[in-house]
Amino acid sequence: MPFTTPGAQLKVLIDERQLQQRVKDLGEQISRDYQGKHLHLICILKGACVFLVDLIRHLPVDISIDFMAVSSYANSLHTSGEVKIVKDLDSIIQGREVMIVEDILDTGLTVDYLTRSLRTRAPSSLSICALLSKPTRRIKEVNATYVGFEIPDEFVVGYDLDFAERYRNLPTISVMKKDE
Ligand code: IMP
Ligand code: MG
């Protein structure tokens, strides 16, 4: 049964096989880098959940996870530039090896804010893992160690990325064009 996508045209940019292969590669890279350590993953709600659950199954290292939610985008195709913490961590990260797991780096404002905020809590290390990046959109430079795919400046949905909370369940990353 095809996915119903009312009000929009979708074009596949990254298919399921490419996604799964890249997530596996990232998992292997992270596992090598954190071998013998305990890694605390911070999943940024809601868009990084599907990425997180796929990624951790390729991390045969000692991990724990926590979740954080920040406000951005507010149901619009354009970022407001405003970031605030809507749900904070349950855990204390002082002295821990911490990794932010994010769906996409766009302007970079969200992850820039998050890294500045989390650094004040004195983790022993803080790295960034993003499934997608749109480098041409950057306003704040972000130093992400792990990036799944660099993509062009197009609005994408699927694999937990949404437009107004829709399309998170698409198994692909697809470019969304609204019907005129
Ligand atoms: P930034 O602060 O501009 O880097 O935006 C990051 C957030 O904006 C991401 O975590 C997404 O929630 C959202 N976002 C940016 N680009 C897209 C997109 O193409 N599709 C869906 N959400 C996006
Ligand atoms: Mg997000």
Written description of the protein model:
It is a single chain. The protein is of the alpha/beta class. The chain has helices at residues 16-33, 49-56, 109-119, and strands spanning 8-14, 38-45, 62-71, 84-87, 97-105, 125-133, 146-150, 156-157, 173-178. The strands form two sheets. A six-stranded mixed sheet has the order 4-3-2-5-6-7, sandwiched between helices. It has a three-stranded antiparallel sheet with strand order 1-9-8. Helix 1 packs across helix 2. The longest helix has 18 residues, at 16-33. The radius of gyration is 16 Å and the shape is globular. The protein binds inosinic acid and magnesium ion. Residues 47, 72-73, 79, 102-110, 155-157, 161 line the site of inosinic acid (IMP).
How much of the polypeptide forms β-strand, as a percent range?
A: 25-35%
> How many strand elements?
9
For the largest sheet, list the strands in their spatial order: 4-3-2-5-6-7
Q: Summarize model confidence as the mean pLDDT.
A: 93
Distance between the termini: 25 Å
List the ions, cofactors and other small molecules found in this model. Answer: inosinic acid, magnesium ion
Number of helices: 3
Helix and strand pattern: EHEHEEEHEEEE
Oligomerization state of this entry?
single chain
Question: Helical amount among residues, as a percent range?
Answer: 10-25%
From the alpha-carbon coordinates, what is the Rg to the nearest angstrom?
Answer: 16 Å
The secondary-structure class comes to: alpha/beta
Low-confidence stretches: none
* Major sheet size, sense and barrel closure: 6 strands, mixed
Shape: globular
